[in-house]
Amino acid sequence: MRVLAIESSCDETAAAVVTDDAPGERLSMASNIIYSQVQTHARFGGVVPEVASREHLHRLFAIVGEATAPVGGLSGLDGIAVTRGPGLVGALLVGLQLAKGLALATGLPFVGVNHLEGHLCAALLAEQPPAYPHVALLVSGGHSQLYAVRRFGAYELLGQTRDDAAGEAFDKVAKILGLGYPGGARLEAAGQGGDPQAVMLPRALAGRQDVDFSFSGLKTAAMRFVAGQGGSLQGQALADFCASTQEAICDVLTRKAVVAAKRCGLPGVVLAGGVAANGRLRSMLEGRARAAGLWAFAPPRPLCTDNAAMTGAAGLLRLRQGERTPLCQSARSRWPLAELAGVDAAQGQGL
Ligand code: KG4
Ligand code: ZN
Q: What is the CB-side half-sphere exposure of residue 58 using CA atoms within 13 A?
């Protein structure tokens, strides 16, 4: 089966073709095209929703053409998947309407994909995907959540952030330091060679046995520290502070992921979401999981941040089980994973 996937939930305009033609029905990518709008939004210091929608409109048609070229265009496809939510509604609608139009014109089966499920499915595109069941640590710009994932489509929320998401914490501290947007990767880069123990930053809720997070205190602590240093940091002081911020965020995330897996009796942890591209998070989780007798898995870095291949992986699996989304369904700004019908329950029905 070959599925075209479109992703336009935020500031990446993306299309991919995902197939299960490989031996053992392993998922792989025939194409994965991403146009990042970062340059456009950078001068505003963050994503401007209206501008994102216009850029999607401007780029998406050509990107879909590029993504479908390796399979001989639309005639080489067996289905169409598109991110339906959660995300910026105006941005989502651009991808959704194009995908619906293509489905209508071709008569191909159509499925609307949950962006969070897409992130969790990025791991399935690896050469050797992780096995079910496992705990998933989903850390992006809008979400910090831990799930028990017993099989594809069955997600039990174990804990989540009470305020800011981990990616948001990276972005806000980066902004305070004047590193610009997008903050996470810039803060990681600026922290290279820094001492992660140089500045003790809050690790909220770390000692508790629940698996919730809170990152808003980190932003306040960062503001106070920077103000106390005369309003800006340079050179080694900047590197030390960035490394310390990263350490504080990763410390809490990895500690709670291990607690969650142990408590549920699940054998491993899968990382997902844009923050999963962070090198320190990946290595710290690996070390802590191993020490606790668990395995850890992180998808290839380019598949952690927003892309359409992950949407295609989730979409292909849902289409393969017979799921179809009626074309009258629209975009969803909020769409908790817990509301997703498991694949068995959803067979043959619209979402
Ligand atoms: O999953 P994603 O691409 O978009 C959302 O669905 O939100 O995640 C974006 C988030 C941003 O907050 C960004 O700063 C963060 O992921 N991020 C990182 C890194 N790369 C992206 N955070 C820390 N280290 C990175 N290398
Ligand atoms: Zn995302």
A: 12
Is 316 in contact with 79 (CB distance < 8 Å)? yes
CA separation, residue 297 to residues 54, 261, 267, 269 (Å): 36, 13, 11, 6
User: Sign (positive/negative) of CA torsion 212, 217, 222, 225?
Assistant: negative
pLDDT for res 347: 38
Rounded to the nearest angstrom, the distance between the alpha carbon of 273 and the centre of ligand 2 is: 6
At 269-297, the pLDDT tens digits run 999 999 999 999 999 999 999 999 999 99
For residue 146, name the pLDDT band (cuts at 50, 70, 90): very high
How are beta strands 12-19 and 2-7 bridged, if at all? antiparallel
Mean pLDDT (whole number) for 111-136? 97
Asked whether the whole model's pTM tops 0.85, one would answer yes
Q: Are 199 and 244 in contact, with CB atoms under 8 Å apart?
A: yes
Question: Ligand 1 centre and the CA of 27: distance in Å?
Answer: 24
Does ligand 1 have an atom closer than 6 angstroms to the CB of 299? no
Please indicate whether residue 305, judged by its CB atom, sits closer than 6 Å to ligand 1.
yes
Q: Which of 116, 139, 275 to mutate to test the pocket of ligand 1 (most atoms within 8 A of CB)?
A: 275
Give pLDDT tens digits for 311-344. Answer: 999 999 999 999 999 999 999 999 999 888 654 4
Distances (CA, A) of 5 to 2, 218, 331: 10, 37, 15
Percentage of residues of the chain with pLDDT beyond 90: 93
Distance (Å, rounded) from C-alpha 313 to C-alpha 232?
43
